[in-house]
Amino acid sequence: MLIYLATSNSGKLRDLRSIALSHPDITLELIPEKALYPAPEETADTFEANACLKAAEYSLRLPHALVLADDSGLEVDALNGAPGVHSARYASHTLASNSQDDANNDKLLRELANTPGVRRAARFVCVLALARDGVVTHVAHGAVDGAILRELRGTSGFGYDPLFFLPELNRTFAEISDEQKGAYSHRGRAFRNLLAQLTSG
């Protein structure tokens, strides 16, 4: 089963491929770059709605192919769930374009500068949607709880990984291996849930 991942983010592909290794009948590839543009506008206010929107739209550009899209982000309790669905655009002056990881992390640290450790709880959330010919066929959810540190730690990963501390491992997501990240991450949990749906029949 060939599944195209609708993203230009190689980090997401790496995360999911490490999990797919245990399912040799499933192959993950990045959607052809020409099919990624123009990107559909993410107008929904939930991860699930945005994931479904993207999966349906991109699958129309690859007729008869299975296309997987995700919407994921960081929810911080002290910020009432922000940055949430705007995680990739948190530091941007417009919600129509993503901002750089460094800028997003810097803004998050500024927003939490006066927030004590006991109130820095956060979670990563991911929703995956699988579609073919414009119709969403499967939806899977995943989440992981942690806390936001006061400084960056680690050089692996991407996005908010250097700030997201995972108590179970006493590490940030940027300090662990791809295999560990696949086992603990929100995206890994969502993908395993999706694989369970695909293989249950």
Describe the fold and architecture.
Helix 1 crosses helix 5 (186-199) and helix 4 packs across helix 5. The mean pLDDT is 91. Helix 1 (10-20) links the parallel strand 1 (2-5) and strand 2. This protein has helices at residues 10-20, 47-61, 101-111, 178-184, 186-199, and strands at 2-5, 27-30, 66-76, 121-132, 135-148, 164-166, 171-172. With 201 residues, the protein is of the alpha/beta class.
Strands, helices and their partners?
Blueprint: E1 2-5, H1 10-20, E2 27-30, H2 47-61, E3 66-76, H3 101-111, E4 121-132, E5 135-148, E6 164-166, E7 171-172, H4 178-184, H5 186-199
Parallel strand pairs: 1-2, 1-3
Antiparallel strand pairs: 3-4, 4-5, 5-6, 6-7
Helix pairs in contact: 1-4, 1-5, 4-5
Quick structural summary:
The protein has 201 residues and is of the alpha/beta class. It is 29% helix and 25% strand. It has a single domain, classed as Maf protein.
Measured on Cα atoms, how large is the radius of gyration? 17 Å
Helix content: 25-40%
Largest sheet: 7 strands, mixed
- Look at the structure and give the mean pLDDT: 91
The number of distinct helices, counting runs of at least 4 residues, comes to 5
Please provide the ordered H/E string of secondary-structure elements. Answer: EHEHEHEEEEHH
Q: Please, what is the oligomeric state?
A: single chain
Number of domains: 1
Low-confidence stretches: none
Q: Give the overall form.
A: globular
**CATH topology-level fold name:** Maf protein
**Approximate strand percentage:** 15-25%
Widest beta sheet: strand line-up: 2-1-3-4-5-6-7
Using the 3D structure, state the CATH architecture. Alpha-Beta Complex
Structural class given helices, strands, pairing?
alpha/beta
- Straight-line N-to-C gap: 14 Å
For the record, what CATH class applies? Alpha Beta
Total E-strand runs: 7
